[in-house]
Design a protein that fits this description.
The chain is of the alpha+beta class. Helix content is 53%, strand content 11%. Bound molecules: zinc ion.
Length: 583
């Protein structure tokens, strides 16, 4: 495992990994770019090819290639390893062959079911009539692999049995079910079938829409060993590329809406699966985009769902806007009535969340109602800047009851907003509050030693001193010195910093070491700078020791140093003295 990680570290370059998502500019040894983890106006993220790490000076996000993939794609460490290994063309050892076989069998059973549904669609009069009636053309049927579950109880059951699949397993996959006597029957009957693939394209579930007037209108696979409903978005396998390219996604309600949008050329459309948008689905979107346009139905249910989705998406750190459907329409019906241009126009004319919420509020209460004004502060407090807040307050002010002077009304409204903001702050955890800019609490002399340690030519020279904890006074330098000793007890680290910085424990000290290399970029640490720094550190240390021990001579200091560090009276230890004496 750790071999594989090292191999990945050596093959994957942090700069090219980050540049896939962030435009980077070279400055000195580093690259800088806009931080994707907070709304960034001036580039505050540095990417250091030397350390293999990125760091945002504004929000504090930082780490190595694995942290980057974990944060950007919202996956755990094991998954990040898989993703990076695949990228780098490294074959990971199969850790559990039996589990892999089981998974393969399940996927094959799902594929068999899809084949049965697609064959049935081609043969069924009922299904073909329905497609014509819904105006779903053959190329769409093909692209979205639509199928039909015949209106009989054993079509799929028989096929699965004949092909040697375990029916008990198939039940786990929501393909068949058992009746009271223990006999198996098809779970989907008389339905238009939508295969649901995850973002990687693996077939994980089905949605079935009744043909005709039966109930329920839709049946969707419940969670199975292959499928977590809350973690899959319908259409993501088609939409992933376009979403990643534009960093935007269009969120719609149902299968046919997704298909309608894609047919109209809006290739970023996805849908949650018959339920309200889940937090995991918002996280999934955040892997691929920064902005989500919500396009739900114009009815009350759709508008309520929009409010909920706005809050889920905002919590996930996504920017949102709301596209407004003409009343009584959904994307599918709009496409049929007004064609591609009509649907495109609606999707593109989206409004900011605050405008949407104020519009909803206005539909709930007239502006003369106190309840309207009671809810205004919470809504407008979402404004991202003072300027934006002002714009909303000035727009609202003329309607504010009881105060005819708009300036006074703005002032009064602003006071309400501030009060609301204070309430919300104390009531909830502030999300992603900008971390204070990290300053390394270390003297420049101390920093020079560690900077030399990461400089290939000076490493041998600096290694020994970096471990001489007594040389340092700043607590962070002392910790770092100890961490270097622990990570490299037998000799200096080898190779580029990016390949060994992960051995420094804990993470916070890796950050410190990485920051030192950032901080030091203006000044070059060469042999002379190092010698100078060591000379001064030595003098200070000697002075400290003489004060502490009331012993003033250098020899006893170094004797003491060797004893305390457990250094033998070796050549290396003598070098310490030589180096000090030489300068
Ligand atoms: Zn940031």
């Amino acid at each position: 495992m750790s071999d594989e990680r090292d191999e990945i570290r050596q093959k994957v370059d942090i700069v090219s990994l980050v540049s896939r998502e962030v435009a980077l500019r070279k400055t000195g040894k580093n690259f800088v770019g806009l931080c994707p983890f907070h709304p960034d106006k001036n580039p505050s993220m540095t990417v250091n090819p030397l350390t293999g790490r990125y760091k945002c000076w504004s929000c504090g996000a930082g780490g190595d290639i694995f942290n980057w993939v974990m944060a950007r794609q919202n996956v755990d460490f094991a998954e990040a390893i898989r993703i990076l290994a695949k990228d780098a063309g490294i074959e990971l050892q199969q850790r559990d062959p039996e589990a892999a076989k089981k998974r393969k069998d399940r996927e094959t059973a799902m594929d068999t079911a899809l084949m049965v549904f697609r064959e049935s669609l081609a043969l069924s009069r009922v299904a073909q009539d329905y497609l014509r009636q819904r105006e779903i053309p053959p190329d769409v049927v093909k692209e979205w692999e639509l199928g039909y579950a015949p209106d009989q109880s054993d079509a799929l059951t028989n096929r699965l049995m004949r092909d040697g699949f375990s029916l008990a397993e198939s039940k786990l996959l929501f393909l068949v079910d058992t009746d009271a006597s223990g006999g198996y029957y098809d779970k989907f009957r008389g339905r238009l079938m939508f295969p649901i693939r995850d973002e990687r394209g693996t077939l994980v579930a089905f949605g079935g829409r009744v043909i005709g007037n039966g109930q329920p209108k839709y049946i969707n696979s419940s969670d199975t060993p292959l499928f977590r409903k809350s973690r899959v978005l319908y259409g993501m396998n088609h939409a992933k590329g376009p979403i990643q390219e534009t960093r935007r996604a269009l969120l719609v309600e149902g299968y046919l809406d997704v298909i309608a949008c894609h047919s109209a050329g809006i290739r970023t459309a996805v849908a949650s699966l018959g339920t309200a948008l889940a937090e995991d689905q918002a996280d999934l979107l955040r892997r691929w985009c920064d902005h989500v346009v919500i396009l739900y139905d114009a009815d009350e249910a759709g508008q309520k769902a929009t409010e909920r989705a706005l809050s889920v998406l905002a919590t996930a750190g996504l920017q949102c806007s709301v596209a407004l459907m003409p009343s009584g329409q959904d994307p599918d019906s709009l496409l049929k009535q007004q064609g591609t241009a009509g649907l495109l126009a609606v999707a593109e004319a989206s409004i900011p969340p605050i405008d949407f919420l104020l519009k909803r509020l206005g539909e709930k209460y007239p502006v003369t109602d106190d309840r309207f004004w009671a809810e205004v502060p919470e809504i407008v407090s979402r404004a991202k800047s003072e300027l934006e807040l002002d714009r909303y307050l000035m727009r609202l002010a003329p309607q504010y009851p009881g105060i005819s002077d708009p300036i006074a009304a703005v002032r009064s409204l602003r006071a309400m907003v501030l009060r609301k903001k204070r309430e919300m702050k104390t009531g909830s955890v502030a999300i992603a509050s900008a971390a204070p800019k990290v300053r390394i609490a270390m003297t420049s002399r101390e920093m020079a030693v560690f900077a030399a340690l990461v400089t290939t030519d000076l490493r041998r020279e600096a290694y020994m001193f970096s471990r001489a904890t007594n040389l340092f006074t700043s607590p962070i330098a002392i910790q770092l010195s100890k961490a270097v000793s622990e990570a490299f007890p037998n000799g200096p680290p080898m190779g580029p910093l990016a390949h060994w910085i992960h051995l420094i424990e804990p993470e916070s000290l890796r950050e410190t070491l990485s920051e030192i290399t950032d901080d030091i970029r203006g000044q070059n640490v060469d042999h002379h700078v190092l010698i100078d720094a060591l000379q001064q550190l030595k003098e200070h240390a000697a002075a400290r020791v003489s004060q502490e021990l009331k012993v003033g001579d250098k020899a006893s200091y170094f004797g003491d140093l060797k004893r305390r560090k457990g250094l033998p009276d070796s050549e290396e230890a003598d070098d310490v003295e030589d180096l000090f004496d030489s300068s």
